[in-house]
Amino acid sequence: MVESGLPAAGFGQRLIRAVGRLPIEPPDLATGESATPASHRDLERDESSASSSSAIDAHPSAKTEIRSLKTGHDSLAYGVPNAKPGTIFVLSRAGGVAIEPGEGRTVAFGRHPLEVDVRVGEDDPYVGRRQGMLTYRQTRWWLTNTGRLPIRMPYSRMLRNTDEPVPLEMGYTPLFLSGRSGRQHLIEVVVTDSQVQSEVVDSVPVGWRLVEDERLVLATLAQKYLSYEASPLPLSWQQVTEHMNRLQPGAGWTPRRVEEVVDGVRTRLLHAGVPGLAREEIGDQPRYAILDNLITELIRSTTLVPTDLAPLKLA
Known about the structure:
Strand content: 15-25%
Strand order of the largest sheet: 1-3-2-12-11
Order of helices and strands: HEEEEEEEEEEEEHHHHHHH
Shape: globular
Low-confidence stretches: 1-62, 196-203
Largest sheet: 5 strands, antiparallel
Mean pLDDT: 80
Distance between the termini: 27 Å
Number of strands: 12
């Protein structure tokens, strides 16, 4: 059953919007190299490093102000702990790190556990051993692709290893890697500022409650939105049906059953006061407008977040 009342607006909505505002001119990075400074630990470290830690606490190299995020940590779209403005949080399914800002500090991500701070796609040979770097320079965090795979940023922007570093805005930015056999690997990034901190503490959006099948169906329907593609559209009932039958062989999913699941959620949210979900409200808009409004609300309220792609075997 859905929670009564409207979910709170704030953090999730602001972060989703923030990723579209990316300046295009990087500062002069001299040689273009992202060398790790003495204030940061050697990336060729042993297996006791943060990337293999399962705790959320101070990193062993305390002077670098690094915290480890354990495997299974909640999506960063739900919010981050209170931290110094400019702190960057980087998270994959294998865990992650949080590091305070400091000139020349870096966070590396990729496949090899001894060469990176955040492991991603460790069993996927398409992902680079050291796929990308986040470097703090001139009061900003900059993303550099150091691997062969393009890094897909929000709204289908592709960052290749021949491109200049890209600055990240404050807020939430999901990054995607397309690996072997169509696998999608997700790296979540949050850069904090004073406004983010107050919103995280005071007004994290309240998500609508979904049962397991509803979440699977809706995440499948909304996968292009959750992947932050440019101009996303909902999948068709038939596409969702085919995917659900691959996920749950023998469950007997049909387009009619998929439609009924989605319509049940739409009806609950409509009765709770969410606008744009009634057929008479959309007028001459395309038929998918109601689905677009439903998906937008589920993402705005952080009911659905990019990590919901993982059970779909896409990430």
